[in-house]
Amino acid sequence: MATYIGSGTAESPYLIQTPEQFRDAFKDQGTPGTYYEVTNDIDMGGMVIGGYYQVRARIDGKGHVISNAKHEQNYLCQRWWGSLKNIHIIMGYYLESRKIRYFAQSDGSSSQYDTLIENVRLEFTDAFYDWNTFRINVNDMVNLIVNENLDSGRRTYWCTGAQNSKVDVSATDTQASSYPGIDTAIWNTTGGAVPVLIPQTGDYSGYTHVMGKTLVDGVARSRQVRAVSADKH
């Protein structure tokens, strides 16, 4: 499992900086939900994400792009009990038999879970199983763009509000008017393109970083290093 800077709380979320960290956050089934923040755009290099997990992670993408990922199943997770916001994920399928059909098989029904998708763009570089039956299966959606982006063309849905509520805006998906209620402080709706998220700057002043180089007889060598402090951070 990946290791993180931070403590996983709302005040000091785990920082996602690498493909491995994002992959593991996206299958975090811990209770209660753990907080994560993405600090930079990440190229997943074809890494597989999601799968048969009851995800409780609370992930804030801070407007960054997660690209070149692949989804494990024909859904991203078995059950969504966490939150996902301010993120653009670009992915394709792992196997052709697992083309995407829905975001989650179901969402959490208990009030202790966030079950929220907010200001998210899910972009798929493979064909959907069936757009007519594509389901989000999450009760709380705010400003979600889902699109199939192929060489043969693009299909775009605007999803906001109730479970599986979606509007086909493919014909006008570069026009801001196609996305009623979209937050222009979060999304860039100009430039004649499908809206993209505006990167946000996180406050990481409370984090301590340790830098150095491990040497053996004066020559740099890879070693496992643990930094221990009795102070805060």
Describe this structure in words.
Strands 1, 2, 3, 4, 6, 8, 10, 11, 12 and 13 form a 10-stranded mixed β-sheet that branches. This protein has 233 residues and is mainly beta. It starts with 13 loop residues before the first strand and ends in a 13-residue tail after the last strand. 37% of the residues are buried. The mean pLDDT is 88. The protein is built from 1 helix and 17 strands.
**Could you state the order of secondary-structure elements as H and E?**
EHEEEEEEEEEEEEEEEE
The coarse silhouette is globular
Low-confidence stretches: none
Q: How many alpha or pi helices? A: 1
What is the helix fraction of residues, given as a range? under 10%
Structural class: mainly beta
Strand content: 35-45%
**Alpha-carbon Rg, integer:** 19 Å
Mean of pLDDT = 88
Spatial separation of the terminal alpha carbons: 22 Å
What topology does this entry show?
Layout: E1 14-16, H1 19-25, E2 35-38, E3 42-43, E4 48-49, E5 51-55, E6 58-71, E7 75-80, E8 83-93, E9 102-107, E10 116-124, E11 140-150, E12 153-161, E13 167-168, E14 187-188, E15 196-197, E16 215-216, E17 219-220
Parallel strand pairs: 1-2, 2-6, 3-6, 4-6, 5-7, 6-8, 7-9, 8-10, 10-11
Antiparallel strand pairs: 11-12, 12-13, 14-15, 16-17
Task: State the main characteristics.
single chain; 233 residues; mainly beta; 10-stranded mixed β-sheet; 3-stranded parallel β-sheet; 3% helix
